[in-house]
Amino acid sequence: MKCKHAQKTMLATSGRRKLSAEVQEHVAGCARCRQIKAKLTAIDRGVFLIPTPSATEAKDAFLAEFLHEPVIVPSSGWMLKLPGTRWQQALVGIAALVLVVLAFSGVLKREHNTPVASSSATDPLLAKVMDRNLALATADSPTKRVQTLSDLADDLDGQTRQLALVAQTDDLQTLAKLYDEVLKAGIVKQAGEVRLEDRQKVLKPIADRLFAASEQMRQTANDMPNKAEPLKQMALAADEASQKLNILIKKTEVAAQEANPSRPEAGG
Amino acid sequence: MRRFVTTILISAALATIVGAQGSSKPSLAEQVKMIQRNRELYRIAVHNGLNQTEKVDPLDHARISAELAKDFGDEMRKAAASHDAARVVELGQHLNRVVDQGVAANLSQARKNIKAGSEFEKALFDRRDQAIEDLKSLEENIRQNLGPDSKEVETVLKGLRDGQKNIEKAAEAK
Hints:
heterodimer; A: mainly alpha; 10 helices; elongated; B: mainly alpha
């Protein structure tokens, strides 16, 4: 068996290299092939440490360079078969990469008179808070107001938990304080204005969401002891607001029952 | 090799499309910086929203929205003074929505129930005049500091002018 055949067989075998007896016999007697086999084994071990998945082509190209001879010879007709194929490949690759970089950097955009476009992205939380503010500016009923405030609380809760790992504690504290205010001065206060007949339907889902949020917030706080304080405050605020809404719903049911004893109890 | 180049070219095409779509969602690190920079605006907007829940009169809603517009305008002036066009554009987009959907929409709603010559009409005109004056002053400030040096800044300036017209129109007797 020739070295070239043995090396190709080794390259064609992925994972643990279960080579045929013939190849193993050749490798045992060939110092160069033994060295290559050892390097291939090292590559197999190391490939799992690469953070991004490697394409077969890229791996083949890497191995080919590793062995100082091309394993896959391009057979495409569109490429000129000139000597010095490797620098030609490199040139095409570099050109393509430059294209990618230019595309991502926005240079290829049609409008060139846009110095602002390359600046930082817009703040998604600010956009959400402004959406809720405008909804409150035109909300014409307590039901719409309390639902919008509930959405605002969800936005603050979601953003806080999303950024809990990376944000500064005082930033989380700011969000926690706003969350608390939205619940106490917003939702709980407005809940009492919701029409009696709508309270169960409107407030129960909000109370349930707040309860679930408090559970998740506590879980996040447990996972991040160094950021726990603002998260615990939010969990407590959500818990209290949920309880107050449930009490309000219950009181409304009792009042309705007393006003109309023939009416069946909710859930009964 | 052919597959490698094809992959790169497809990536380039996708990247071109993505790049052409403008700014993408910010990374977590960018969002943290945004929180640090905008947390006073969050507070202002949330408190302003809570104030809105206390009122039912459209004229009050218009006044409260005008206060928010003024706060955003102040922040835009600071950004314009430091030639931060991107921030002027971002805040300007929010401000123009507040003017249209908060101030003008509520003035228009209020106008429906206000009789000509009444005290309420005077209050309505006061709101209108103050809001327009604030927007004019802001427009002038941005023009002086930045000028229409980009399409986005020009769009914001146009939004401020349109906002003034919308407010004027909203306060007209129906």
